[in-house]
Amino acid sequence: DIQMTQSPSSVSASVGDRVTITCRASQGISNWLAWYQQKPGKAPKLLIYAASNLQSGVPSRFSGSGSGTDFTLTISSLQPEDFATYYCQQANSFPRTFGQGTKVEIK
Amino acid sequence: EVQLLESGGGLVQPGGSLRLSCAASGFTFSSYAMSWVRQAPGKGLEWVSTVSGSGVSTYYADSVKGRFIISRDNSKNTLSLQMNSLRAEDTAIFYCAKDRSSASVFWGQGILVTVSS
Question: Which residue on chain A is closest to B104 by alpha carbon?
């Protein structure tokens, strides 16, 4: 199975900050990577698919990059509504696996 | 408007069975793979199972293989998850999700399954 490792596990940031979250796959997954945002008590929401494609309706301050084993999610200017937990998921092969999550907290 | 509504959750004893359903609307159900993803209390997301649009192909996490069965009824726009031999570690919120481009593009609100004596 492909293991997904996110870093950091948590980050404290202020409104307006640039935040970068990293996801590393245990083996190459081409660009088969998605990023999700989850707020407490809510279902996850797709932000990015195929590593760098912005899901419809998602603000352009979110961006994704990477290929192979190393991927990043960047929030260019953190907004109050962005405080949440973020997960990566590989879709290269089954079983699909998620990273452990990165909690973005208010500094 | 896409809607996914899970039902069938609740409290079940260890070793028992439960069947989850997900009623879909607002899209051509048979054209999309569908998945179940779960989240244990206070934990991260765990992919559980995926079924192709036709229902022919199914995939499972090792943790549920041989105990859970995913299926779909395209005539009724319904996704199901039959869960047998339930364990305490299966306690979680279960989400159904619509897949596209190998990502889960839309999620239901989730349903709680509690396995406890």
Answer: A46
